[in-house]
Design a protein that fits this description.
The protein has 346 residues and is α/β, with parallel strands linked by helices. The protein has helices spanning 40-52, 68-76, 106-120, 139-151, 165-178, 201-208, 251-267, 271-280, 295-302, 311-320, and strands spanning 7-9, 12-16, 23-25, 28-30, 57-59, 85-90, 125-130, 155-161, 183-187, 211-212, 289-290. Strand 1 and strand 2 (12-16) form a beta hairpin.
């Protein structure tokens, strides 16, 4: 069994990517904002700052800013590609008129991966992930396409995003039966406001040796404390009290956030840092994905590496947000198991 103990480099520690021998930083730099809300020049500077701070794990997707995020990430990594564990994802359409340019068919997976490689300016992707599950495509078709990409040297490892536990197990079983490369990681949304993945996804990942790479550990900025019960005008995803999927901030969520802000103040850190420190300390978690829009947010997020959690902190948080609980139904509304046709038109 691979050694899963963390190693340290400065203030950053590194963990095995699931059952593989690859070491990744305890925080993963997410790049969804780059090329969309964050200009290219600023994005390049933020990536450089993150790498200087010890981050070696960068996550993007072909759908982010319709390919612009991948292009910017590729530009930023020129000359240092060998030092970075680069992850991207495929599933969502870039051309809404191309009915076959979406989903988990063999045709789309191979095409999407080839196009990502071009935008990233690299010969290989370290972790290629399925951005969402799709019930009407047989898993063996998807796995055979992914296996071909691995055997061709274009992809090193395979991962999923928002796969329910049963789908993860089905995929692992099919890969074993067919002698194909298996998944080694899963991205699921996980934060203090919704601990749903602790019910089945986290235990399944721990049982089968998958890395868990939580996205949205700050719930799109809610756990930063910048939105309050009386003022939701702050710039960001929850401006006005709802996010882009029309999820409303609930009164119970504000109750939790207010107490979370007090806890962070008592601990001498920011609410963001406390939420991230808690997240990366959870059993089975490999590296939460931070998705900063500004350099200031990135610097704040990196400060989570200096926050030491103790038993009192965990007990205080569990009393506030009990294990397996969901103060907001965020996971179930994040298209985790929704297989309606309009899902493919996101």
């Amino acid at each position: 069994m691979a050694d899963s103990r963390p190693i340290f480099w400065g203030d950053m520690d590194y963990r095995n990517l699931g059952r593989t021998g690859v070491k990744v930083s305890e925080l993963c730099l997410g790049t969804m904002m780059f090329g969309r809300s964050t200009a290219e020049k600023d994005s390049l500077g933020m990536i450089a700052h993150a790498l200087d701070a010890g981050i070696n794990f960068v996550d993007t997707a072909n759908a982010y800013a319709v390919g612009e995020s991948e292009r910017i990430v590729g530009k930023a990594l020129r000359g240092q590609r060998n030092n970075i564990v680069l992850a991207t994802k495929g599933f969502f359409p870039l051309d809404r008129d191309d009915i076959n340019g979406r989903g988990l068919s063999r045709r789309n997976i191979i095409t999407a991966c080839e196009e990502s490689l071009k935008r990233l300016g690299t010969e290989w992707i370290d972790l290629y992930q399925l951005h969402r599950p799709q019930a009407d495509i047989p898993i063996d078709e998807t796995l055979r396409a992914l296996d071909d990409l691995v055997r061709a040297g274009k992809v090193r490892y395979l991962g999923t995003s928002m796969f329910p536990a049963w789908k993860i197990v089905e995929s692992l079983w099919a890969a074993k039966e067919l002698g194909l490369n298996r998944f080694v990681a899963d991205q699921s949304t996980y934060h203090l406001l919704d601990r749903t993945i602790e019910r089945e996804v986290l235990p399944a990942a721990q049982t089968f040796g998958l890395a868990v790479i939580p996205w949205g550990p700050l719930c799109g900025g809610l756990l930063t404390g910048k939105y309050t019960r009386g003022d939701v005008t702050a710039e960001g995803r929850w401006h006005g009290g709802k996010d882009n999927f029309e999820r409303p901030i609930t009164e119970p969520a504000f109750d939790l956030i207010e107490k979370h802000v007090v806890h962070a103040r008592d601990k001498g850190c920011t609410p963001s840092q406390l939420a991230l420190a808690w997240n990366k300390a959870q059993p089975g978690v490999t590296a939460p994905i931070i998705g900063p829009r500004t350099l200031e947010q990135l610097v704040d997020n990196l400060g989570a590496c200096d926050v030491q959690m103790n038993e009192e902190d965990f007990q205080r948080i569990d009393a506030l947000a009990p294990p397996k609980s969901a103060t907001m139904p965020y996971y179930d509304m994040a298209l985790a198991t929704d297989t309606r046709p309009n899902l493919l038109r996101w």
